[in-house]
Amino acid sequence: MNALVVLLTLPLGGALAAVAFPAGVARGAALAAAAGTVAAALAVASEVAAGAPPRIALGGWPPPLGIALAADGLSAALLVTTAAVMAAVLLAARHTMAAGLAGPRIAFGFWPLALMLWAALNAVFVSRDLFNLYVGIELLSLAAVGLVAIGGKPEALAAAMRYMLFALAGSLLYLAGVALIYAAHGALDIDLLASRRPSGTDALALALMTAGLTAKTALFPFHVWLPPAHAGAPAPASAMLSALVPKASFVILLRLWTEALPDEASPAALTLIGALGVAAVVWGSLGALAQSRVKLIVAYSTVAQIGYLFAVFPLLPLAQAAWSGVIFLALSHALAKAAMFLAVGQWMAAAGGDRLEELRGLAQAMPMSAFAFALAAVTLAGLPPSGGFLGKYMVMTAAFTAGQWVWALPMALGGLLAAAYLYRPLAALFAREGASVAAPSRARQAVPLALAGGGIALGLASAEPLALLANGQPPIQAVVR
Amino acid sequence: MTFVLDAVLCALILGVAAATIAGHGVFRAIVFFIVYGLLVAVGWVRLGAVDVALAEAAIGAGLTGVLFLAAYGRLGREGAGGDAPAPAHLPAAMAGLGVTCALGWAWSALPLPDRPGPQLAEALPMSGVENPVTAVLLNFRAWDTLLESVVLLAALTGLWMLTRDAAWGGRIGLPQHVRPDGVMAGFGRVLPPLGLLVGVYLVYIGADRPGGAFQGGTVLAAVGLVAALAGAVRPPRIGATRWRAALVAGPLVFLLAGLAGAALGAGFLTLPPQIAGAALFAIEVALAASIAVTLAFLVLGPPEETITR
Amino acid sequence: MTALTLYALTGAALIGLGLYGLIAARHLLRRIVAFNLLGSGLFLYLGAAGARGDGPDPVPQALIITGIVVALSASALAVGLLVAGARLSGRATLPEEAE
Question: Which segments cross the bilayer (chain C) (predicted)?
């Protein structure tokens, strides 16, 4: 059996089992499906690394009739990072989302929703069909909204509703663009579109799809729904929502602008996206500075980190390093942000809340998860030797190569701001006053630490991921211009 | 003459849509929306898309309308039924007008492309069905449809997460109190057998003519809803194993059929032409059953009655 | 003007109306209704585009049926959120938009 097929079908099968069976069996089935999906992600990545990227025309029907799936370096990197984050999240959830602790309702719903979310992410990362991508991000959004609401508190329900409205509007705007593409070209396949006869309507289609997907990614000024939604969910759900969910719509955007319709990427449009990215970096960081609950600080930081991903857009057609740099930023953010939310979840369970003053001195009782938070902060601030540093370094190099140094500024500025907003939780954690709390076992504290370590390792051992990414990297368009 | 007919229909659609958005009162907006859905279904017939017309009438107008009416009733019980009048919103008006004008312009600029027509004509005899829309849904773009069947399940799982913890494990939906000699009870006796017939027929003929798992499943869901609202059947408890199995049967059969293709070496979701017809029929029946149950549960909503443990 | 143009422009107008309602309305049930109008207008536009040339193209019809089912799933979850939220707050609007 093909690893790519296992990767797509196993989380779906696990989700179905988790719906059908009673709680105990459901959790076992979900964890078994998760283990198999991690193995499949690694197998797909090794196929890509070996120079044999898998590609399937589903049903044996090649596009434009059927749907093609393909894994390239970008897919493989995201699939493996997603597998790492999901494995950590589900391990953490094995305790906190069990019926005894979370109640029978959450113990029923968490597992199918988490696996559906994972299945949707995998499907989005390998699909080559614009409409299939629509179905994929709808599955992702609905599972994500369910996870935001799962806590059941009034604030969580309001956050889920606001998220839902943005997701609904965003998906229809994206779909409007897809409809224009099909009406003009009779095809939905990214590779067929790359070699299409351009139509005057393509710029409008790209604009609609971009508006819709940026609303789903929570790019400034569509970010208002994100902090309450990500902060209102239980910690393992927050980790998935913040680390992984925005990456799906971002990858579709990246593929649209660099693979499907690169000829429509006008400098003015790219500058606008870049400017919104810079605004998100500033606004998200200031928002994080103003918070006094650590979960909200971490959630606002996601707004800023999403900003980086878009601040790189103006450089994409100009320098090769910008593309790898932005993907490094996305991957290290995923690892670091998931580590942070899982660590915060352990503190909240121990201290009863996430206000900064409630966390004072927790590092003495929980040194490992505090250290995980500190390592993740290194990655988010972009300090060496983390993957976040390497990503920023590549982007800044690209900016100078292209003679557009202005796009290097947000990277540097954002790093300073991140150091500022992450200092307060770190200072509270490592304060020298003993807090006597019941700490979780070392094995459980090791889960966020492993993720945070992954974010650092991405910078230290960057050769393999960089070589992996090189498979299928779209050529830069500068020569055309 | 037919042009005049289309023009009148379009004017009606737009008028009713404007009344839905701008009219006073939430209840009236919902009623206008249902009328709108029926008019659009007529529009689909005029465009030669009978499959879509059936889906729009059954799902777009019918089930969505019931969903909204039920929600309106529940909001009234929570004391939140009143309309919250919206002040005129200039940025929203500009966004709406801008998108409309842009798409209107795009219509005049759209080229007429090569479409997958020839490939489709060539592949249709091997697809196992004669209705090209069904062939696209269940065979050529089966991956979309498989994911979509899981989208329904994701929505239901998310909806069930909105249950109060005190009501978890109870019967889904609002507790029904129907007078045995009332109108609703009469409906509940007459409609279900008739609807059952129509639903099964739509699923059965979907292979060759307009209809199929989604349209048929929706009619079957409506049958279940009417029967439940009339008190003829009691909705199941949220944990009932048999019903949970019904929820996953469709996606599961679809998934297993796809994997069987991969295991036999033909490829994921590849159905050899000799058995495609039988395989698609099995998928269609299982899918229709799951769609019917999922849609009915989606409209009934999460359990609301506090259960005493 | 042909009948197809008529349906396409109707679709475009419905999209604008729906978008207006989705942004401007305060009552959340009205917003969800507007979302459905937007979606249905979009499908009409796509369907009209697919009916150009020689005969209706079945591919957009299949896409539209998928889209209708997805829209219902999303509407059902949104309505559920609305009702659950109203039960706790007594309002059918977002907290920051309460009158």
Answer: 6-25, 32-51, 63-84
